[in-house]
Amino acid sequence: MSVNVEQLNISPQTDICQLFEHYSAKNWSMLLDSGTSQHQHARYDIMVAGPIMTLTTQGDTTHIWRAETNKITQSSDNPISLVRKHLEHCFGTPEIQTTLPFCGGALGMWGYDLGKRFETLPDVALNPYRTPDMAIGLYSWAVIKDHHQGEYYLVSHSDYSAPDSAEIENLLNSDVSSNVKAFKLTDNWRSNMTETDYLTKFNKVQDYLQAGDCYQVNLAQRFEAQYQGDEWQAYLTLRQQNQAPFSAFIKLPESSIISISPERFLEVKGTHVQTRPIKGTRPRASEPKQDCAMKNELQQSEKDRAENLMIVDLLRNDISKHCLPGSVKVPELFAIESFAAVHHLVSTVTGELETGHDALDLLQGAFPGGSITGAPKIRAMQIIDELEPHARNIYCGSIGYYSLNKRMDTSICIRTLLCENNHVYCWAGGGLVVDSDGELEYQETLDKVAKILPVLKEL
Fold it and tell me: Which domain holds residue 322?
């Protein structure tokens, strides 16, 4: 089997959303989108559709659908191991001669609660969602935009059917269905905890911290509203407002996922590993002088630096499980990155994969990301499950790909919405430490969704 790469005759000014909108209503269509961001890691956009196989995990069972037979089988095996197994079965070891990041392979989402398959954790929080814990498609073709080169490419496999270049190019000259209905909330946002509830839970976390159970716990509230209309239209609006480098839209049979995340979880290129945890936040201000003051306050905050360092240490430990001894480094500590709603404190941790381990081993060993659990991770996750009323599902999980050339890139699903059964869910949380202030932490959760909840309410 060989991988074919064809440059498309599409202007670099063309937004990939103009192509993807023709697929956005089709189940298992997915877009990994740099969101028109100018961020240093916003180089590629990747769109896929029509998988040759899907793997959906709920609890202990993974359902495996094959396009070739249109039949579903079930397995109780490790879901990440199943992804690896079926990739090898479907694609073998193809000849790959491209530097593009995705050459076909696995693409989709790993929900936060999938972590319960890898660690012994409680299952107390209510779980009302239809969306599975893992939803991965195996894709034999993709359209990729390289923003640095200003080029579009069609990647396909000789053993599987794919649209040809003319078919993709002609999409730009065809209209999308006129039956699309505008996205609109049909009631107001409501949280699964009041401010009083949050502060009560905050105090409970403080008790655990003082008792030495943890150094840090991430506590989140969930917002919910009813809606009608097309989720893709909501994505387009939020994308324009946030311009987040790890944006994504995923259309599943019973739900849609909208992500405008600024955070990378794990990237693997060759043997090189990178993770970039975010921990530390200040709101943006409309007046430039005040906005600069907020940025400087975050940069100099001893509390936020300490909080960030705790998670850096956690991630150093997590990736070292599958990296060469002595290879894990921290080349960047406490950098400031600014996004539409907030300034963030970001660090970079790197390592080199050890022989005999691949990116999927790394993903399982570090899942879910430590920046959205707390430290130590397992005890923090136990406390989260005790105190948060509902399961997290996609929130604080990961979206990304594992390519046949062994490359991987994944996000942390913050600033991420789940749309199912005409209900839209959005979460916001933050890391709590012993010197946190409850009212300030509560306000921080609102700051993080300042470019989401009001934006959708106004549609």
Answer: 3-172+182-457
Which tens digit of pLDDT belongs to each residue from 355-377?
Answer: 999 999 999 999 999 999 999 99
Asked if residue 177 belongs to a domain, the reply is no
User: Model-level pTM?
Assistant: 0.97
Whether the Cβ atoms of residue 353 and residue 273 lie closer than 8 Å to each other: yes
Own/partner pairs for 450-454, CB < 8 Å, 24+ apart?
450/283, 450/341, 450/342, 451/238, 451/241, 451/242, 451/340, 451/341, 452/238, 452/241, 452/242, 452/260, 452/341, 452/415, 452/417, 452/426, 453/189, 453/223, 453/426
Q: Rounded to whole angstroms, how far apart are CA atoms 433 and 402?
A: 34
Which of 263, 267, 420, 441 is labelled catalytic?
A: 263
The per-residue b/e assignment along 375-412, b for 16 or more CB within 10 angstroms, e otherwise, is bbbebbbbbbbebbebbbbbbbbbbbbbbbbbbbbbbb
Instruction: Decide: helix, strand or coil at residue 50.
Output: coil
Nearest to 143 by CA among 299, 21, 317: 21
Q: Are 42 and 239 contacting, i.e. CB atoms less than 8 angstroms apart?
A: no
276, 261, 431: which is closest to 340 by C-alpha? Answer: 261
SS3 209: helix
Q: Please say if 279 is a catalytic residue.
A: yes
Note the pLDDT tens digit of each residue in 302-334.
Answer: 999 999 999 999 999 999 999 999 999 999 999
* CATH code assigned at 351: 3.60.120.10
**From 279, 377, 448, 451, the catalytic residue:** 279
Kindly state whether residue 431 falls inside one of the protein's structural domains.
yes
Nearest CA-CA partner of 162 in 4, 29, 1 = 4
d(CA 392, CA 372): 11
Q: Does the residue 403 lie in any domain?
A: yes
To the nearest 10°, report the CA torsion of 123, 125, 128, 132: -40
At residue 219, what is the residue type? L
Using CA atoms, how far apart are residues 206 and 229, in angstroms rounded to an integer?
42
Q: In the chain, which stretches have pLDDT less than 70? A: none
